[in-house]
Design brief:
The protein is mostly helical. It has a single domain, classed as MetI-like (MetI-like fold, Orthogonal Bundle). The chain has helices at residues 16-34, 72-108, 110-124, 128-139, 143-152, 156-169, 173-180, 185-221, 233-240, 249-274. Helix 1 crosses helix 2, helix 3 (110-124) packs antiparallel against helix 6 and helix 6 (156-169) runs antiparallel to helix 8.
Amino acid sequence: MTDTATFRPRRRLPTISTMMAIAMLSLAVAIAALTPLWSGYDPLRQDLFGSMAPAFEDMAHPFGTDALGRDVLSRLAKATQVSILIASAAVAISACCGLFLGMIAGWYRGWADTLLMGLGNVQLAIPVVLLLIVLVAALGASTWLLVLLLGLTNWVNYGRLTRSMVLGLREQEFVIAAQTAGASDSWILTRHLLPNVAPKVLILAAFDTGVVIAIESSLSFIGLGIQPPTPSLGMMISEGQRYLQTDPHLTILPAFVIFCLIGGIQFAGQGLAAAKPSRN
């Protein structure tokens, strides 16, 4: 007779991707969240008499100061907060637009599918960064405009993923049964298809967040992203390049924060994509 007490749920050990994501994101979040608690926190205050203070020598400025005497740690914290907020808002816009348009194209097919996917193919043919440079240069640089442009230029992958899933789900028995019962299109889309599509879209959003942070930092690096006096990681790298030989930490520190943000988010996305429900 089998002793059922010996059968226990197998505890899943954290994967390398999960541990890397936790370590890298924890470091970036700690800089963004804990630095405002530091005494004298002010990323915009200038002190020309205390400019170019070296890093790791004065606890009042642990990461030193820049050419205008602004505290580097405080500016790193503010720039990290700005990057996270911009990326989150832009990815939310992209995911919502792609989810809505992909469900419409996959469910109704016909001219709606041809029109929306044709628009997506045209947009994919244009490099995103080049398109953003042209749009920002033409419309002007502002934070909210940058968020909107980043969101509206990255919806295509979400739309294509959603469309392909809806095309497969619409032939499933539970959808056919709902149609037979007289359920409306909106009911089927929101109650039956959306819960099945949303998890995959969230995984794609996790990967895309790091991409958006890289694009935002690149635009800020060339002066078309976040505008002064608001600090940004890309702008800090650009400013620090002038002092790369004498004070390399002005460039290395913001670059390291970008690396932790993007790497941590990518590892987190890999962990979500590889996650499987545990069996008892």
